[in-house]
Design brief:
- In chain A, 34% of the residues lie in helices and 18% in strands.
- Chain A contains twelve helices and eleven strands.
- In chain A, strand 2, helix 2 and strand 3 form a beta-alpha-beta unit.
- In chain A, helix 6 packs across helix 9 and helix 9 packs across helix 10.
- The model of chain A has no long low-confidence stretch (mean pLDDT 95).
């Protein structure tokens, strides 16, 4: 199995309600990525960069790719902004790997950013809302919490263990977030707290929903064959996959299947010539608790309906046989839209280098990340292995 | 010299004030691209797609990459939205070539789209405005016409022939647009009409500014080695280049040099192992007449200040020794933001296949396209040759 590219450095800001603006966040994440390279990396070696962002800083700054060049100190370097709603980060990483594969770049930077908390809430609702289907669903009043609430209703209707499983996802991800110093929420919650929280879109309550967060994350990629110039512990990208589905949920044959995720995981496994067993842990797109259950099933780690029992049994806990979202996931770590997909790879970088501190998964050697745009309209899946 | 990818099909809507909405425009351009493939291309052979758009249809539809999959009939296919302001199309084409180079895709679709005329003019001003520097320039009231007006003032201050050259660019591009059935403006203008038109941002008048247009364009790319499965007349992509510069014009050492264009052309020529001589014609980013003069100089086809005489002498006319913008350019053909960079490649596809009808440049064998985002903050340059 050939490696497609190597991650040799990674940076990450705190996620949460932050004082920093978008430029400062980008600078902190990219500075962190350069500083993390064990044997150092010169900024002049970076030949290409990608920026994942949905609204940057409230849509007041456009052409934001040029801002990344400025803040990362990459004079003249081409930067491409990639926007696939909440999957922007996963798709930007994919583009960065392609740039490495072209054979024309020594080092490629990918950064993800969102500054969500210093804009009016009307604008925030708008920019998130337009990432779903506008023509039929948003116009009818369906927010993202509303869409995922419908999916959760359907799941609970079909599978008896569903309600307890949603609670178990929230409790587990908060447990993991409590060990992540970058997480938006670093506190544990009890099942009773989750159960009794205010309803947002029944059956989803407050603790079923990811927060609105600021934050940035960045990665430095090198050709696999040159990775050890930078570090003795590179993390290799072995497989890329992506897919799309109808924007409107109502146009799908089965509400509980995200076709984009299924396409993406098949392609990723095929391109890496890998199998599911052997994957040490997953980072999945848990924008709502129900999304983590659906992800486990669409990714093929559980049969339809079986993610519920699997979660309740603790198998997806950090100490389970298939840890899911050891960094707290979007649920507890936070979900600064463009940053989220890049942040998933950051966690993989730490875990596969055995550098995740108190939340380290013992012997983690292979990982999968899963990043979704909209309610499953686009998805990117990436596979990694330790160097 | 190796070819990097081949264009085997291309489609284009009329540019202008159109009744069609964004979905219909995307469908028309992509249907046109499939229909143009001489020996046919099956949609199921498309493994990846890219969408270039700034605001899609007034920013009411986000996650627009999924819409391209729907309208192009590409079920499950991964689509990435690329947004680099007015250079979105050039950067999307670049990403599409990279996907072909990865060796994992038989056929890649790239589409560019903008629907600009059925949104409020406040929103239109906003979405264009944010593509310049907001923190210092837009906040001070500087529109894009204002920025380019300043650059034109400087050019006229330094070079005596500047004023006549701006007029000559407008007259030439309208002359070319009159022969392009897809152009927004298909009528010739006299130098006197240009000279006496209302001022927009002195010294730029109405005929110095590109219009606000709707439209879409699409390309189908295949690996070079497989191009002849689709057509006897592929057009090869031989070189890619791109660059960035400060978002704010005031931060540059020289107002009349777009560093991003200079980086981009150097890289494109280097990667194609090509030289400027031998290039039959250029498609450059003439959002304002002054931009065409600056492009000729930054691209290295004229010394600083010499693009003026070159243009006045008719050398850039369709019948000159270096035709520029034979399709009418952004100036006369129109500038539906995300579509413009893709549309430039469409013109190259026609010209290098000797299929451009009354505006055909005899013996066109090589071409260069140049697509700029903002006032020079990002730029993409692509080189092509006939099959």
């Amino acid at each position: 199995m050939g490696h497609r590219a190597a991650i040799v450095g990674a940076g990450h800001t705190r996620f949460g309600v932050l004082e920093d603006g978008p430029r400062a966040l980008l600078r902190a994440a990219t500075d962190g990525a350069f500083a993390s390279v064990d044997r150092g990396a010169d900024r002049s070696a970076v030949g290409e960069a990608y920026l994942a962002t949905l609204g940057f800083g409230g849509w007041q700054i456009g052409n934001s790719s040029a801002v990344l060049a400025e803040e990362a100190g990459l004079e003249g370097v081409p930067v491409t902004r990639v926007e696939n709603a909440c999957a922007s980060g996963g798709f930007a990483l994919r583009a960065a790997v392609r740039a490495i594969e072209s054979g024309q770049r020594d080092l490629v930077l990918v950064a993800g950013l969102e500054k969500m908390t210093d804009v009016t809430s009307a604008r925030r609702r708008y920019w998130l809302g337009v990432s779903g289907d506008t023509e039929w669903e948003r116009s009818a009043g369906l927010t993202f919490a509303g869409v995922y609430g419908l999916l959760a209703s359907r799941y609970l209707h079909q599978y008896a263990a569903g309600a307890d499983a949603l609670i178990a996802v929230a409790v587990k991800n908060h447990e993991n977030g409590a060990l992540n110093p970058n997480a938006h929420f670093q506190k544990r919650v009890t099942p009773e707290t989750v159960r009794s929280s205010p309803r947002v879109a029944d059956p989803l309550g407050l603790y079923d929903c990811c927060p609105v967060s600021d934050g940035a994350a960045a990665l430095l990629l090198a050709p696999s064959g040159e990775a050890r110039r930078y570090t003795d512990s590179p993390v290799y990208v072995d497989g890329l996959g992506a897919g799309s589905d109808s924007l409107a949920v109502q146009e799908r044959a089965d509400l509980l299947r995200f076709g984009a995720t299924r396409w993406a995981v098949d392609e990723a496994l095929h391109s890496a010539r890998a199998e599911r067993r052997g994957i040490s842990f997953l980072e999945v797109h848990d924008c709502f608790t129900i999304a983590e259950l659906l992800a486990l099933e669409d990714l093929g780690f559980a049969e339809p309906g079986q993610a519920a029992e699997m979660t309740i049994a603790g198998r997806t806990a950090r100490t389970g046989d298939l840890p899911v979202n050891p960094d707290g996931g979007l649920k507890a770590k936070g979900h600064p839209i463009g940053a989220s997909g890049v942040s998933q790879a950051y966690e993989v970088f730490l875990q596969l280098r055995q550098a995740a501190g108190p939340r380290q998964i013992p012997h983690a050697e292979r990982a999968l990340t899963h990043n979704v745009g909209g309610a499953g309209a686009t998805a990117a899946v990436t596979l990694y292995s330790a160097g």
